[in-house]
Amino acid sequence: MELVFLGTGSNNPTPHRGASSLALRQNGLVYLFDCGEGTQIQLMKSNLKFGRITKIFITHLHGDHLFGLSGLLCSLSSGMTKNQHENDGTETESQDVAPSVILYGPLGLRKYVETTLSLSSSKLVFKYDIYELIPNPDDGIILSQDDTDVLFKDSQTKTVSAEFISDPSHEKGGYYQYHLSTDDNCNVYAVSIKHRLPTYGFIIIENNLPGKFDIQKLQKEHGLKPGPFCSKLKAGEQVTLESGLVLKPEEFVGPSRTGRKIVILGDCSNAMNIIPLAMNCDILVHEATHDDTLKEKAIEFGHSTPSMAADVAEKCNAKCLLLNHFSQRYRPVKQEGKLDSTNAKKAKNEDTEDDITTDLLLSQAKQCYPSRPVFIAEDFFTYTLQLPK
Ligand SMILES: [Zn+2]
Ligand SMILES: [Zn+2]
């Protein structure tokens, strides 16, 4: 399992930091989280393959998380056309085939995708599904008549509603969660977090993994060499060998291992809703748009600072905290090449001569979360999650 940060800037892309996008690679497939402008270019610069993207999750509809989506879908489509031509000279367009890509995101995502594709006369050769998350009572959003008409009268529209999970430890007696998918050996959930638009955090929980197979014990106790019977033992089956020897799986296979848990949040000034589901996660990806001296400004615009991210990490006992979504005023530490003052100003998009790096954000977060690893995730930062022991 690998997390690849494709774009880690807030608001707008610059030559040194792309707009929001993050990829989770597992079992050869790629789940993409957000798709800001320029995500295609970042994908090309990474070692990820377009064709491996099967699911795209959009945290919210602000442009810096969304404006690359239609272009990416078109490129996926042209890539597929080419492949199909190479394979059999035909293009298929069937209603019965499983969708190649499934998108999940806030209400309005379908309208955005369909409008941009139709206005630009773009036709995708593959089937895609869009699942929109219906606001839950905690979001404080009242659906318009238009929304209600589209959602509940059009049978083609796919939606996901939140379910209320009782939790006495929660200040409201429980919380709302969306169960989005169960494919690819993991479950994906979403929970609302506080920003200026309906915004979600995603929780990916891997299914439990089988226990470790002790091949050495098998060799030591019975003098056996590895063979086809090993896979049966690994799968929990009892095996009787030709010699009559009976091998029980519990003797050679350890207890099942808890799957990994990854939490990826969109922009937020308060993500406390995520805590119950995010508890003991392996990774928490949390935004840190501004540093702690600008906390008031951060909250005013629905954003967070390093100490706020650390607070969430502490409350859910995250094993590792990765910060992203930096204001362009914070220069990447390992910025390649030298900026002249004009370009530096452009890159920072601020009328300021300050030269502040993301080291400031890192030190503030580490101070508040000293017990666990904390990283600044600049573009192309890659974090590998090892298999559980
Ligand atoms: Zn943003
Ligand atoms: Zn935003």
Automatic annotation (TrEMBL):
Keyword Zinc: yes
One GO CC annotation: nucleus
Any one Gene Ontology molecular-function term assigned to this protein's record: 3'-tRNA processing endoribonuclease activity
Organism superkingdom: Eukaryota
Pfam families from the UniProt entry: Anti-Pycsar_Apyc1
Cofactor(s), by name: Zn(2+)
InterPro entries the UniProt entry points to: RibonucZ/Hydroxyglut_hydro, RNase_Z/BN
Keywords: Endonuclease, Hydrolase, Metal-binding, Nuclease, tRNA processing, Zinc
Record text on subunit structure and interactions: Homodimer.
PANTHER family reported for this sequence: ZINC PHOSPHODIESTERASE ELAC PROTEIN 1
HAMAP family: RNase_Z_BN (MF_01818)
Protein name as annotated: Uncharacterized protein
